[in-house]
Queue: 2 jobs
Job 1
Amino acid sequence: MRVSPSRIVAYEVLEAVRADEAYANLLLPNRIDRSKLSEADAALATELTYGTLRMQGFYDAVIALAADRPTDRIDPPVLDILRLGVHQLLATRVPTHAAVNESVVLAKRISPGASGFVNGVLRTVSRSTAEEWRGWVEQETRGGADAKLAAVTSHPEWIVRALRAALAREDRADELDALLAADNASPRVNLVALPGLGDETPDDLGDPNRFSPIGLTAPRPLDLVAAHEGRVRVQDEGSQLAALALSRARPVTPGERWLDLCAGPGGKTAVLAAEALAGDAILTGNELVPARAELVRRAVAGVPLDVRVVVGDGRRAEASDLGAEDGFDRILLDAPCTGLGALRRRPEARWRKAPSDVAELTALQGDLFDAAVRLLAPDGLLAYVTCSPHASETHGTLTAALERWGGRIEAVDAREVVQSVVREPLDLAGEGPTVQLWPHRHGTDAMFIALVRRVG
Ligand SMILES: C[S@@+](CC[C@H](N)C(=O)[O-])C[C@H]1O[C@@H](n2cnc3c(N)ncnc32)[C@H](O)[C@@H]1O
C-alpha cells in the first residue's frame, strides 16, 4: 500500500512547521506545486495540514490518553503522524481503515520501528467519537475551567483568557465559545477588487461581501486573481475595511500625502493606492524588512500610481526623508502585533505566541504610534490598526498614546466612518469610538481600527 501524495505533503509541512519553524501558509502552496497535486489532492492536503495544526493541542491530549503516555515521550516525527491520523479520524470523512492504514504505512517510511505503536494508538482513538474524546479530555485535563476549555478548543489557556477579556469589554463574554469555534474553522478565501481600476464591480465578479463594498468571494478565487492580475487580490474583508476607514474618513483633497508606515506585505497599501489614485493623493509605503518591501512593490504593481516604497525603521522615520516636508495628511499604522485575530488563517500561530510577546509588541506599537503622530501634518489623520483584539495591543496602546500626547491628538469616531463605508450595518458592541471586528460575528479577522487626528 502506498501513502497518498496529499498525506505526504501534509506530513512534510507539519514536520517543517515543527522542526524548522516554517509557516504553513507559505510552505504549503510551494509543496503542492512541487508535488504537482491535482486540485482535489491539493484541497485535501490543505485541509489535513491546517486542520491538524489548528487542533494540535486537542489532538495531543487525545493521543496522550490513547497512548497512555505524555506526548513529550513520543518521538516528534511519530507524533506528527499520529496528529495527522487523529485529525482524519475525528474531524474528516476519511474512512477509519484508510486513516489508520495510511498512517501506519507512513510510519513504516518515516520511523519503521514505530508502526505498531501508531497502529495501536489510532485504533484506540477510532473506537470512540470526537464528542466522547472531548468529554474525556475535559475530564482529564488538570486545572480550572479555562484549562479545560483551552484543551477541548485547542487554544493556549492565556489566549482563551485574553479573548474572553476582549469580549467582556464589549459585554459579550457569552460569545467566547463561538469565537473559539470560528478560530478552528477554515475561512473562505476572500478577495478584494481594487476600486476604480476596472468596470466590473464585486457583484459582477462574484458574490459580494456582506460588509466591504470592495470585497467578494467566488467559487474559484485564484482563477479570478489570475484573470484580473493586480486588480483582484486575496484579502480579508476586515483588512479592506481598515484601509477604507482611513481613505474614506473624509473627502480627499488632491495632492494629499499618505503614508503606510508598516506596509509589508502590502495588502492594505494596494487598497490605499487605488484610493489615492481616485483622489489624486500621493502614497508612500515604508517597511522594515527589505523582502517584505519587495512584496509591497509587487502588491501595488497593478495600480497605475507611482507609489514610493521605502525600507526603514518606522520608529526613526523622518517626514522629509519620506518626501513630505510638512508631514502626512493620512497615515496607516497597521502595527506588528500578536495576530490573535487571525488564528484561523495562521494555523500554527497560536502555538508560537507567548504572553511575553504581548509586552514586547505593545512597547513597539507605542514607539511606532509616537513616530506616526510626529509624521502627521496638522489636522492629519492616523489609523491605528491591529489584527489582534488583545486589550493591551488595542485599547491599551491607544489610551497610552492619547495620554502621552495630551491635547495634541484626539480620537475620531471610527465607528461612524466604518458604518458609513459598509454595505450593511455592523453589529459593533461596547463603547466607541473604536471598531473591533470578529470572526464569529462578522466573518472577518478580528481587526481593531482606531482613528486619531492631530490637533493643530
Ligand atoms: C501587520 S503587518 C502589516 C500588514 C500590511 N499592512 C498588509 O495589509 O499587508 C506589520 C508589518 O510591520 C513591519 N514592521 C515591524 N517593525 C517595523 C518597524 N519598526 N518599522 C516599520 N515596519 C515594521 C513588519 O515587518 C510587517 O511587515
Job 2
Amino acid sequence: MLTNMHVYDYTTPTVAFEKLCDSLSVSRTFVSWLSLAVSVTLCYSIYALLSLFRVSGIPRVGKRFEPSAIQGWKFFRNASSVLHDGYSRHPSSAWRFLRADTEMIVLPSKYVNELRSLPHSIASPTLAHAYNLSGSSTNMNIILKSNLHFRALQEKLTPNLNKLTGPMIDELNYAIRMELPECKDQWVAMKPYHSILRLVARVSARIFLGQPLCRNEEWLEISTEFTENTFVTLVVLRLFPRFLHATLSWILPSAWRSTNYIRRAQRLLTPGIKKLQSGIITTPSHGDTGSTLLEWMIEIANDNERNAKDLAHLEVVLSLASIHTSQMNAVHVLYDLAYYSEYFEVLRGEIREVMREDGQWSEWTKNSFYKLKKLDSFMRESQRHNPPTLLSYHRIMQQDFVLQDGTVLPRGSHITMPVNEIQNDSTVTSNPQRFDPLRYYNMRKEPNQGHLHQFATTEESILNFGHGKHACPGRFFAALEIKSILVRLIMDYDWKLPDDQARPKNVMAHEFVFPNPEGILYMRARNET
Ligand code: HEM
C-alpha cells in the first residue's frame, strides 16, 4: 500500500521538482545548481567526444584523450610550442589541433594558391574572423552583416593615399606635441607601448573621421579601449567551450565595457553621420582636400548599409583592425632599434637622402616614404621576428572542398596557416634565427626583385597580412602611417634601453604576440631637424 508521502502530483514539472526536493530534504537552490552542473558536464562530454571524431584522415597533434579544455589551456600558455610541434611533424601536409573552443585544421602554405581565390561561399574569411574574435559575444558579428569597411579601404582609401599624406603628417605634428614627454638635453624614461598607441590612434582618427572629431578625447578612448577590452574578453572565452561563451560574456566586465563603447560611439557619431547623409555637411572634414573614410563609406554604401548606428559600429571595428596592429609593429621596431642601436645611423642616413631630394619631412609625399627601403626592410624583418599572430589565413569552409592532392576540407571546418613557422622555415628564409634588418633591402637589389619583399607585399609564404583577394585591405595605409611615425621618432630623438637590459620580452596569449606594454626606453630630443 502506498503511503501519502509517495503520492506525488506530477501534473507540472515545477510541482514535481518541489515535491522531490521536500522528500529528499535538500534545498531547491542546491538541486538547481546540481542540475546545472550535471547538464554542463554532460554537454561538455558530448562536445569533447564529438570533436574526437570530427575530421578523420587528418592527423592530430596533442594527447589523444586529453580533454579539449586542457589542450586549450596548453595552447593559451604555449601556442608556439604546439604549433612548432605540429609543423615539425607535418611541414608539408595538413594536421589539426584542439583549442578549448574548436578544432583547427592547420595547412602548409603550398595550398595558398589553391585557396586564395575561392569565393566566400566555399571558404569564408569573414566567418572565420567573426568566429575567432568570438563575434557574438564581442560585438564583432557586424562584419557578417556588411563588408562596407573592406570595400571603402580597397576602393577609396588605398587609391587616395597620396592625398592623405599631408593630413597624416599634420596630425602627427600635433600628436607628437600632445603625447611625447619634454626631453630636451636630458634622457627621459617612457613606455613606448602607450605613447605610440596614442600617436597611431590620433593619426588614424584624422583619416577615418577628420576634424574636429579626431581630437575628441571620447573618440580616442573608444577607438583604443574597445580593442583592449575585446581582446581581454576573447582571451578568456577561448579557454572555454563555445557553448559557454554567451553565458560567460554576461559576467565578464571587459565584455560589458566593449558593448558600452559601441553605444558611446553610436551616440557620438550618429548625429554627424545623419547630417552627412542628408547633405547638410558637404565640406571635407580633414580641413584639407579629400574625404574621410567615414565619408567614403557613406558615399559607397548600398541601401542595406545606410543605418547610421551600423556605420558608427563599423568605424569602431575599423579601429580594432587598424590601430593596435600598426602600433604593435611600430613598438616592435623601436624595441629592435634600441637593441640593434647601430641601425639608427643607417636609417637616419637614408632619411637624410630623401630629404635632400624631396625637402623637409613636412612636405613629403607617399612616394617619399616609398623611397625608405632600408626602413621598410627593418619593419618587415621586425615583423618576421615579432608577428602579430602565429596563425593567419583563417577560413571557415562553407562546403566540402577537395584539394588537388586529395586532402578533404570538410564543411564547417576551421582552417588556418602557421605563419610564424612558415616564414621561419629555412627553406623560406635563409638563416632565420639571425635578425638581419637589411635582409629584404638586399633582396630587392637583385634583378627584377625591386618591387617585391616590401613590408606591405604578401607572398605565398609570407602571410602576416594574408594573401590573395582577401588579404588585409589596410596594409598600404599601415605601412605609410608606421613609416611617418618612425621617421619622426628616429630623426627627432635618441633612444636607448635602460642600462644592461635586453629588449623587452614579448607577451603571448594563445596565438597572439604583443610587444611588452611595460617595456621602458629612454628618449632624448635631438637637434638635427
Ligand atoms: C601592421 C598592421 C596590420 C596587420 C599585421 C594586419 C593584418 C591583417 C590580416 C592578417 C588580416 C586577415 C587577412 C585574411 O583574411 O587572410 C587583416 C584583415 C583586415 N585588415 Fe588588417 N592588418 C594591419 C593593419 C590594418 C589597417 C591599418 C587597417 C585599416 C585601415 C586594416 C583593416 C583590415 C580589415 C578591414 C580586414 C578585413 C577584416 C574582415 O574580414 O572584416 N588592417 N589584416
